[in-house]
Amino acid sequence: MKKKTRGLHFWKNNGDDILLDADNLFWALGRRTGETGTFIPKRTLELYAKFKEALDEEIEDLRFGQELTAIYIDPTDKCNAACQYCYIPDDIKQRGASLGKNELDLILKKIAAHFRLEKRKQVIIFHAAEPLLVKDLLFEAISRYKNTFKFGIQTNGLLLEKEDVGFLIKNRVGIGISLDSASRDTNNRLRPSASDAFKKVSQVLEWFNGYAGLNVITTITKHNVNQLPGMVEYLHSKKVPCVLMNPVRLTQVKARALKPDEPAMTRSFIKAVDRAMELSKKTKHKLIIGNFTNTVLSIIAPAARRLMCDISPCGGGRCFFTVTATGDIVPCGEFIGIKGFTAGNIFKTSISQAMSSKPFKKIRERTVEKIKECADCKLRNMCGAPCPAELHSMGNMYQRSVFCEFYKSVIMHAFKMIKENKIGYLLRAASLENLKYRYNLCAER
Amino acid sequence: MMNKKIGTPNGRNKNTGKKDKPVDNISYRLKCAKTANGLSHFVMYGDVPEDKTLL
Predict the structure, then answer these.
(1) What are the backbone angles phi and psi of residue A227, rounded to the nearest 5°?
(2) CA of A277, closest CA in chain B: separation in Å?
(3) Helix-strand-coil percent breakdown of chain B, rounded to 5?
(4) For residues A298 and A48, is the Cβ–Cβ distance under 8 A?
(5) Which one of A16, A109, A243, B32 is least enclosed by Cβ atoms within 10 Å?
(6) Cβ pair B26:A438 closer than 8 A
(7) Which letter does DSSP use for residue A10 in this model?
(8) C-alpha angle with apex A413: A412 to A417, nearest 5 degrees?
(9) How many CB atoms lie within 10 A of CB A308?
(10) CA-CA distance, A169 to A129, in Å (whole number)?
């Protein structure tokens, strides 16, 4: 692996100096005392020397470990919303395949057998197209396997009823609901097949009533790009604990027409982060913008990162994979319909075979050091240059991220929040309690 | 568990009870003391805390 810029980088951000080892993510923030002032105190360099090797190992494990942490199952190709930015090709949705009860049972048994020696429960996530179109199938599987797996569902929420919400809470199912705007018109415009998705989801959020396993996913497009702070206010009023505000993936050609203006997205996203912190500070309810929190974690606690798109190589085919409605195994849902990335079929291929397959290796070999624009970027291991599927579909996965400048600005804002000591508003209270220092410069004075 | 001096709001000096002053030089690294479902602490799909689930 070619590493062009090993060592400590040094630059300014909002008047502060930042010191960073781009490879093991050792960092220090300081304020220059004068034009000729020295930023790097001796004790900072001593700290770096003391922990460098341990941090190298930590990041090596994070980036190149192959521990499966989740398996996505798409139980059906069908959908009832037709979101304009959907990552599943239209021809696959029109195919309309769905898993049957015996097929899903076989898949879950196979996964359980693969992980039979693991102490922890494997995470199973039912994902797109719209999994609740086969709600009975999923709920029956959750009931049957709740002692074997932890479950999550990503849904547009249109088919959820009050008793369903009770079932999901009772069984501690993680639930992600797609909602793109606090404006009814904007949200519904993106989902032309649904009669009034906004009204329905608004009701569903109230039924969940602040449930800890609830997340909202807001996909940022040109239609809602300036509405993110308003979205934060809306979700906070609904007691939602976590939202992911993700830039639209341009994997599918039709999604490219929805690309948001990058500077506008950056401004709006950072305003949303700041608004969420203000609301969390003023009220008893804390709303986390999950992808910003994940960026903060990439600086202060890299091994605690939860999202897998901004680690290089990404988590696809490494920490998780997707099983489609026909049983095909792909590194990630973004690869559905892209030729050359199917690792086999769950009904014929073992999980070990899939993990060692060429398509999965191809994704695991895609590191930021091999991308020309990223090799010299000091932030490369905080952003990870997502997403290989998106970039492959645009010609070449070894190019910089579509929203490179956005990610850089968000990372800089994360450094600013760390400097301003606002971490307490960005992580859940329980999360803070579960973190401990590996080292702390202040404590070593 | 996490030191209140950095990383949490309203950090206070143990002796004086006054708010800590911002420090000029910061560098720290955190790791998970306890993990949810063997993963990280961050509640996402599938790792809803069992003792805090709202029923």
Answers:
(1) -105, 10
(2) 11
(3) 5, 15, 80
(4) no
(5) A109
(6) no
(7) E
(8) 120
(9) 19
(10) 22
ipTM score of complex: 0.88
DSSP one-letter code for A85: T
* Alpha-carbon span A264 to A272, nearest angstrom: 12
Q: How far apart are CA A259 and CA A8, in angstroms?
A: 35
CB contact under 8 A, A438 and B31: yes
Amino acid (one-letter) located at A334? E
pTM for this one? 0.92
Closest Cα in chain A, distance from residue B17 (Å):
18
Element (H, E) at A383: helix A380-383
Interaxial angle between packed helices A262-282 and A228-237, expressed in degrees from 0 to 180 and rounded to the nearest 10: 30
Q: Is residue A178 helix, strand or coil?
A: strand
Q: Which residue has the tokens 């911002």?
A: B22
**B1-55 pLDDT, tens per residue?**
444 444 443 444 445 555 555 567 899 999 877 654 444 434 454 455 554 433 2
Kindly state the tokens that stand for A79: 């959908």
Q: Which of these, A253, A229, A232, lies nearest to A241 by C-alpha position?
A: A232
